[in-house]
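Sat 14:20. Reprocessing the chain from the morning session after the first attempt stalled halfway. Input below, unchanged.
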Amino acid sequence: MLQTTPLLKLDSLSRLTGCEIYGKAEFLHIGGSVKDRAAEAMLDAALASGELSPGGVLVEGTAGNTGIGLAVYAARKQISCVIVMPDNQSAEKYQTLQALGVELIRVPPCPFSNPDHFYHTARRIAQERGAFWVNQFENTANYRAHYHTTGPEIWEQTSGNVDAFLCAAGTGGTIGGVSRFLKEKNPAVQIGLIDPAGSGLHSYLTTGELKASGSSITEGIGIMRLTENFRAATIDGSQVVNDQDMISMLFHLARQEGLLVGTSSALNAFGAYAYAAAHQGSGKVIVTILCDSGSRYASKIFDEVFLHGKNLDPMRPLPKL
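Finished this time. Tokens:
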């Protein structure tokens, strides 16, 4: 069902930096996010292996987008979905999942070490019900989906002239698959991780230790452990982007590019902008992922009370880097 998504040139950011910055419009998938790629691949792999059959039941723990992708594709196979989510995600995700007919289980957010974490809860429910546990974090069909689709699309759409690819990591599937493909095509392509506050991946890449400080309003990205999908990645550098810079970018893209994107998309775009600014005037071709739409977070990012409560100013312009 998946179709190639367009690569959109971010003209205002390109003009500011003298580079060519592109965002891959993953919000155009049927399920509305980049997670559709992994969801379809993991579902197809489970059906092919016999771990899952039409009429069966799957269980997954997710921040939302993978659950939505699974529900969209499972509906066509008459597979039932049980989705476990932390209860602090955007209302729009819950509403979408309920409309798709999943059994939705919300749990309080907690550290991964807690047995009540959504990941462990999903695994436990799958065992209790004899259902298929998708396990997107360790299921390597996730990164392989991006190795076989996202990476080749970027290569073809840039005519092989991509200089850098940057994105955030949640499961690590996107950066794992895309980096592996692009590095095979051209080892000189630079791969950059963009990390939100509260995630330990930047620390791991720079110091060898998983350490983090602060927190972020972004959803579905950032992690405090190394997954099998992330281990597939080859990464040359990393940076941390704070929430204010992310929000400034989110509203910049809306008002200057007509692109209403979600928080992880804005984080990615700011990271690409910062990388380009460090290579000012070089004409480098830089690609990032526009993961999903801002409409999936409207109750938060378009709510001035919420933003001000987090000390975030939607009117603050992009910093000059």
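The two ends are 41 Å apart (CA to CA).
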